[in-house]
Queue: 4 jobs
Job 1
Amino acid sequence: MSELKISRRNFLKLGGAVAGASGLTLGSRRLKAMEQDLGGRDYSAVTGAERKAVPYTCLTCNIEDGGVAFVENGRIVKLEGNMDHPNTRGKLCAKGNSGWLHVYDPDRIMTPLMRTGKRGEGKWRRISYDEATSIVAKKLREVIDRSIREHDPGIRNEIVFKWGRNRTGGAIKRFMHALGSNSLVNHTNICESSKKVGLEPAWGPDIESCDWANTKYILNFGSNILEAAYFMNPNAQRCVDGVVGNKAKIVTFDVRMSNTAGWSDEWHAPYPGTDAAIALAMAHVIMNEGLYDDEFIRDWTNVTPEQLKAHLKPFTPEWAEKESGVSARDIRRIAREFATTKPATTFSYRGPCKHVYGSYQEAAIQMLNVITGNVETRGGYCLPRGMGWPQPEPVPPKPPVPSVIGAPPIYPLASHAVSTHAPYQVMAGEAKVSVWFAYYDNPVYTYPAAHVWERFLKDEKLVPFYVSFSPYMSETTELADLIIPDVTYLERHDPESMPGGLYPCLSIRQPVIQPLGGTQEFRQTLIDIIHKVDPDGSLGIKKYFAFKNPEEWMRAHFDNIPGLKEEGGWDFLKAKGVWPIYGKVDKETAKIVDRNGEEVQPDYQLHKRELSAAEMEGAEVGPDGVIRKDGHPIGVRIRGRNYVGFGTPSRRIELYKESYRKYGFNPLPTYKRLPSRNKKPDELVLTTYKVNVHTQSRTASIKYLAELYHKNPAWMNPKTAAARGLKDGDLIRITSPIGYMVTRVHVTEGIHPDVVAVSTACGHSAYGRLAQLKHKEKAAEWAQGGDPDITHNVWWDDKGVHPNSIIPVQVDPIGGSQGWYDTVVTVTKAQPGDKYGDVVADFEKAVKAYEHQLRYAYTGDLHRANHPEVDIDWDSLPKPEVKAGGH
Ligand SMILES: Nc1nc2c(c(=O)[nH]1)N[C@H]1C(S)=C(S)[C@@H](COP(=O)(O)OP(=O)(O)OC[C@H]3O[C@@H](n4cnc5c(=O)[nH]c(N)nc54)[C@H](O)[C@@H]3O)O[C@H]1N2
Ligand SMILES: Nc1nc2c(c(=O)[nH]1)N[C@H]1C(S)=C(S)[C@@H](COP(=O)(O)OP(=O)(O)OC[C@H]3O[C@@H](n4cnc5c(=O)[nH]c(N)nc54)[C@H](O)[C@@H]3O)O[C@H]1N2
Ligand SMILES: [Mo]
């Protein structure tokens, strides 16, 4: 039970202070009605009959909240949160609530399209799904036949699959591995891969799950918990539970006053890319002042307190103040507070990790939880709690030849690919493309040096055949040769499990209505393509796609899971949307409670689960305590007990990362001064950020959301503006090493004086009429059409300006992640002739910038220069294996 019981009414009041006054304005009668029924039912305003309710999993961003769709006369009329979902607890955000507009977007593509003009010219021939899948199968068969003829399985890597958001539960991997290609390229290096690579070698999983609700102290490094962030909705709810319900203190480090920073007890604006300096200095204080958890460090890490003290010696608060601008006094004070308030947890998202050397930043932040013994405690820094599901057998094996695009060899630690590099690798002849697939992917908008992607995808020599599965005419889709539109997330099947809280669960996506206008699920399209590539099964590919239809594919995932099977397997999930059901949402506390009204407690101390006698049978305990079976570590013996431990070779938390050392990086958390820290005084660092009502490139076409937020002036500190003679609303030019953009300035105290910040959801040059403010034009003939709001009721005339073409590629040599927040720019008044919305970017300069940043890779000269402290024989570093020309 939470220590402090507060009534739902108080809760709403306090919550209302956060979200605006909405909670307070509700009349008391309506409030009563809400209390009678928390959700799950809805009634027709016309007939009064109960509406059909179908559970689903949201995908308006990627947090996978549980939802229920209400359907009337075959049309989705309303969405709300699924009360059975333990992490979402019946709530959706603004994007989730307006998600049904994705279905009825008047500019949605309703039929497969074959290009008739030049790439990007917008001339299309409407074709059937059958014709479209036959065309693709023929192209794929050509590559496969050539690979067979030439006895070269590596040729199949010329089939490249690039995706952005992929919640297919392994469908794409199955498709590609069945075809024999390893050229799978995700978007994770523009998202948060350096966070993952900062964490995985240390404790196994790629993310933490904080026990926000039960904590007393939250140290937030660069995450916009209330507006964006991973698990935004569930994290924001539990963060409010903790801060409001449990009186936890929250301290936020952000270069900008995000709504989370503004809501925090303290906001500190560090110089960009210096979070690691602050975290290391805090660790220095905690170790030197004896505030650490000696037993936890000795038992559960691969270093000793003495080693840590020695390593942390140079990272004093005074040194960190010089690097970060945050005062040594504050750093000391917060370090002491964090170490002495129990339980406490850090949280971090993209602010620290989206820099060159972002992996070090993440590792330094994680260390604070480890040395204070807050790991896996109630109210602490916990392992994520996801749930797996089996892949239907047979599963295609991983193809034999590695792909240079799929795993660039000069980034051996970047376990989540380095997708920004793909076009440059192909342009340089390091890899070859025959067929390019794009799924949920919009690099011509969402990637750094976006204009390079445009040029690349337009080049028929480099990309001979290009297929997009998008239901929307995005900046990237409009360049395709063939579009085979997917359906929206409310019309298709997907398996899901997101560790959005401390209650692990499975959930699903299912068609809440039949796909509109004869459109077809991507999953069905994959089945059709494979059946046409290998019609008689003689290639050995067809057997991996022996699904009658997408629903049977889901059944194969879910019907044999112990526990779920007994409750009905897939059919249970269809009815409830989520499994298991932990209890009910309590009307007073909004917590999950059991039949007796007691809060359902999550499990803690997962690393201390003791191995059973059966698990120990045949196992050996090494002198280091590691318990191994068949050569694999399965646990660790500590003080005579056999624990399962963490997902590392030593089964302890590896603050010392051997894999980093192997490639000449510092094995212990450290700080590297970035070039952006050495900028000239009159230069600024460009930061980009997300806003609460938009998702990446995907929501500018959603009328409710576009009405709320459609322009993105650049934030600038008053001091910085004054030095340039700028006042709020002035037209400015932001110039980077590869181009410039012309926008307006928003002068605000809520930003570091050395930073200029531009949000990322606006300024489209495609994505339908509304996103481009071409709403007076008629809908295209391939489009759904039919929303008079868009032609008649749009009152705004500013669509914002998008910065991505002026941001160069620059990746973390460890995690391979794009350093979005490292771009040094100059900002001046706009120049004569400049027009609002101008974005001018140079191709050659972008390629040069790409080549320059390669020098940070472990094979490059800047790598050596930056790591004089690592005591290794540089010539003995393993060499990357690059095979030119396609493999
Ligand atoms: N509304 C909304 N929510 C989303 C998404 C969305 O598109 N819209 N997308 C989802 C996805 S894919 C992701 S990856 C997450 C991202 O979630 P977050 O990482 O929480 O959000 P971002 O806006 O990417 O960046 C976080 C903050 O980093 C700050 N920052 C920049 N540089 C620094 C720095 O050097 N130090 C510090 N301390 N802070 C810095 C920025 O000002 C920004 O406020 O959000 C998810 N949730
Ligand atoms: N400047 C800057 N840029 C950034 C970031 C930043 O911090 N700064 N952060 C980024 C982050 S965190 C992320 S995760 C990336 C995301 O970037 P992307 O992975 O490119 O993702 P989205 O914009 O979410 O969606 C891509 C495309 O999917 C297609 N699509 C939409 N709905 C569907 C559907 O139902 N089915 C199919 N098949 N396709 C669909 C649309 O064409 C859409 O344009 O962008 C990033 N871009
Ligand atoms: Mo992301």
Note: Residues 1-35 have pLDDT under 50 and may be disordered.
Job 2
Amino acid sequence: MDIAITRTTAPKQKPAIEGIPFGTYFSDHMFLMNYVKGQGWINPRIVPYGPIELEPSAMVLHYAQEIFEGLKAYRTAEGKIQLFRPTENIARMARSAEKLCIPPVPEDIYLQAIKTLVELDQDWVPSAPDTSLYIRPFIIATDPHVGVHASHTYIFCIITCPVGCYYPEGLNPVRIAIEGREVRAVRGGTGFAKCGGNYAASLHASEIAEAKGFSQVLWLDGVEQKYIEEVGSMNVMFKIDGKIVTPSLEKGSVLPGITRKSSLQLLKEWGYEVEERDISVDELIAAAGSGALEEAWGTGTAAVISPIGEIVYAGEEHTINNGQIGEVTQKLYDTITGIQWGKIDDPFGWVVPVC
Ligand SMILES: *Cc1c(COP(=O)(O)O)cnc(C)c1O
């Protein structure tokens, strides 16, 4: 598949990486491809980063027929650039696409698009420790039609932005609030799909929690409001009595995270007993009270591993591991980031070189 490349004639000045706000500065180029019913995905191209023209009636603007992905390119000490498990993102986007009635992007074009874009904008992959280039592929429905059905035309776009060190002061355990009223996803809904609508639905509860000084909301299931699902836009894991426990993906309301999958594989490799199952909020609070809850952390591409130091439920505060980062949490962070930046060997074949 040939990707036509139109280089920018006005390369942008790169912002200083130290203290750069997440998702604000974008690199020089973007990838675009169109879908037209009857023709399939056509016209793959890389062009200078810039606005996309849309009809005000474009379906995505009214009915949120949109899906996205998030992954990163990492620069190794030798100056090489590599991706972490990109085919997992590509496969997940195909599952999101099916749920949102969006035609899937052929996998080979998708990976070629990411690699070509990152290679072209390789100077945008920062080299300071713990920095990376965030890659955001997304698909929007573009039919100029205010009517509820699946669009017949789409745009697939990939943009990238340099991101700084997530933890400039070291891993810092966060405070989270268990959300007892609002829910993010329901059984039978779009929880497993990475779609913008899920995020729109999560804003209200998150804003209220942030105003109260919490960094994230711990979501409960949408049916009984009893079982733990996710923390903010991360998956969540607990170490209870020496075992690793995490919500299962069975009900379809939890996003199947790639950091989650990688963490579980490592934990099993290290000999931990891992349980993917329902965890009720009562079980969690009881474990916190008895001291059986040894560690808690979130997993996701942006922060990789995010230690949880305190949970608040029904007005009561529960401190985990004295608010300190736990041993397993730290080991997961060190191992996954070590593989991503090429500091330690990758025995799993997770890393894919770009250039
Ligand atoms: C993207 C995402 C995650 C984390 O997935 P990773 O593949 O690990 O980045 C978890 N929960 C939600 C809701 C997400 O959108």
Note: The chain has seven helices and 18 strands.
Job 3
Amino acid sequence: MPDILNAASADEYATAVGAVVDRLAARFQTVSQPFSGASRADLQSLVDAVDLDAAGIGTADALRELDDLFVEHAVWFHDPAYLAHLNCPVAVPAVAAESILAAMNPSLDTYDQSTVGTLMERRLVEWTAARIGFADGDGVFTSGGTLSNLQGLLLAREAAVAAARADLGLTRSDAIARLVVLATDSSHFSVQKSALLLGLADDAVELVPVDAEGRMRPSELAASVAGLVAAGRLPMAVVATAGTTDRGRIDPLAAIADVCDREGIWLHVDAAYGCGLLVSPTRRDLLAGIERARSVTVDFHKSFFQPVSSSAIVVRDRVDLAAIAWHADYLNPLENAEPNQVDKSLQTTRRFDALKLWATLRALGADGIGALFDRVVDLAADVRRAVGASDDLELVGGSDLSTVLFRYAPVGCPEPESDRLVPLIRRVLFESGRAHVAKTVIDGRPCLKLTLLNPETTLAQVEAVLDLVRASGEALRDAAHLDEASESLAAEAAR
Ligand SMILES: *Cc1c(COP(=O)(O)O)cnc(C)c1O
């Protein structure tokens, strides 16, 4: 029986994977834009044309078909014109380690399924905790920042419920109804989703006022807490963001920690994006205060150049994780002395994502990874200077990390037109396949966004994308004027 990976098929495995790797390597040598530019209708018909009920076509043909269908039309995040979201190009040692995971298929839930893998994940969690500044921290790898934030807030909820029961004599449901999470409108939307999943009240996420760059104001935080307490609510957690998704700004962690310490509130730091600074040889100080958090989210698949997925939730006090341990007789019985990671995780069967980070750390060293992250932060500063100096682009705010926000705003282009062009420019570029930029809304106005995560990209390459932005902006303005002109001609003719 070929096709199931075992001793008999080991050669077939090497051939199949070898062919895939050879084809991909050739693609990496020749790819010249982030996307083929195929229309969604064309892609839909390619997908629909495959008969999933047909007889099997064999491994080699099935994989060749994937090359034509998926690889040909997928997005290449390593291409220098891919500048849209927080997708990083991936480190070679991590990709090679991922292929080990695919073949061996370990699961990290119990020690008897993962043995040394469990110990390696624990080492990496402890390593991350030490980088944060937790003397006796603990945690677990997760599928992403969304799950890490959910778990951090779940732990915070359990701590708050325990305190409300002990100190105020409240029942669990009465306590939960009063809980509030303090965040800002720049916090990741997974904070709101988590509040929903955690059964908190509809108004449980209180948005603290921010400064002009979208950073939480500690004095406003203190005022919000005082107001909530006066109204009988129970502040359960403050979510500070180390690297907001749009602006790449870091909330003032130490001053926020002061408020949390004073009021006895759980501080969760969402460093999904900014965690790359943990290994930065030059910018670690930007995270000063993170060591005062009770829990921290890190996304290695954003700023450690790891393939999706690779994230972790890290807590300062290891006892905090115990709040979510459940035991099953068949899996992780209470009397079992084996180190079962499932005791710390919201997942059961779970990928050994730590292996990729392990390989990358060993290959590049922590400073090596940090130097790569530094390069994208430096590049973003160069791009912001270039945008700021340009007379047809308008820079929107600054960044501590690697995002650039701007609008196409040539002289004489009124603001509403500039705003209207934002989504159109993004779409024209996306549909051409030549460049991917993102769009967002800052202070109520749309703007274009670049997220720089490719350490090999040069300023000249980003400027080439800015030229594409200008060219499409110009073409769209001409077309709009033509439309207006033809509309008025048509209106005249009708008269
Ligand atoms: C991306 C991001 C998340 C969510 O992480 P996923 O890995 O996409 O689930 C959370 N917080 C911030 C600040 C992010 O940028």
Note: The chain has two domains: 107-364, 368-494.
Job 4
Amino acid sequence: MLIRKPDDIRSSEITPESVYRSRREFVKDLAIGGGLLATAGFSHSALAVSGQQMAQAALQPGDDLTPERIATSYNNFYEFGMDKADPAQHAHTMSTQPWEVMVSGEAAKTGKFDLSDIIKGLSVEERIYRFRCVEAWSMVIPWSGIEMKSVLEQFEPNGNAQYVEFTTLERPSEMRGQRSLFSGIDWPYIEGLRMDEAYHPLTLMATGLYGKDLPNQNGAPWRLMVPWKYGFKSVKSIVKIHFTARQPKNTWNVLAPNEYGFYGNVNPAVAHPRWSQASERRLPSSLLNQNRIPTLPFNGYADQVASLYAGMDLRRNF
Ligand SMILES: Nc1nc2c(c(=O)[nH]1)N[C@H]1C(S)=C(S)[C@@H](COP(=O)(O)O)O[C@H]1N2
Ligand SMILES: [Mo]
């Protein structure tokens, strides 16, 4: 397959029907919210703001959707190789049906579940999120997904559950990167969140993008999507959910603890040891036109999430 360079692709080439539709829905939602505010005289904080409204409010001028072809051909999914083009080329070898998920730890309902049973009856929403990789590139992507809270609640986590850990499929026969000796990663890929982060309305279990099912290279059949954190937190192709009292060991932190922390909150003020995080290349980007924009605290979601970290030293907890 020929993978075109991102700079060959004009942003006018996309914007599928479903995205226009979801944009109209957003506008309708906002109008209804605004109407309530005006007539009933509610203060902003008294009115529960939906995750979808939060997502919409954080979008910045110039946040045009990234061409679908870039979002699905410029990927990080080391299970299929370390090149950006590897996942799109090789992830088709992963079989995603059936998809079983093992739930364990500090919860009343644990065991093995079929994915279709877990998500049955839960509502799937479309959300346009800014997405910022720790490598200092970014995209704007229309995801479909289920609020993580409603996914997790059904397992009835108990009072000891302070964190939740997510694990990617480990199946070297279908994942050529797991057979390679070069990645240095101790498979499977693991990520975690504090429970309050996992229950935040912006945290999604994504099941699709651009109005379609998730392509394998983007983490089919479901993956985490936390828009205020660096991309490495948003673990793909999840087969295990583990509720725990202790902070999980996340893959990139284990690999390079001085470069990647547990929190991974987007922070322009804290440089990666090898590069600045003050700005990012918004894809599509090229050598001649880098399309560099300033990076925002919490990737633009500070109003919605900064309170989760009140009193924490974000330099130490990077
Ligand atoms: N299992 C797994 N999940 C992963 C990764 C990975 O290599 N393996 N890469 C992470 C990184 S670094 C990024 S930037 C995003 C990329 O997601 P995308 O390819 O859908 O843009 O996935 C994250 N989730
Ligand atoms: Mo990343």
Note: The pocket of MTE (ligand 1) is lined by residues 75-79, 133, 168, 189, 218-219, 231-232, 234-236 (CB under 6 Å).
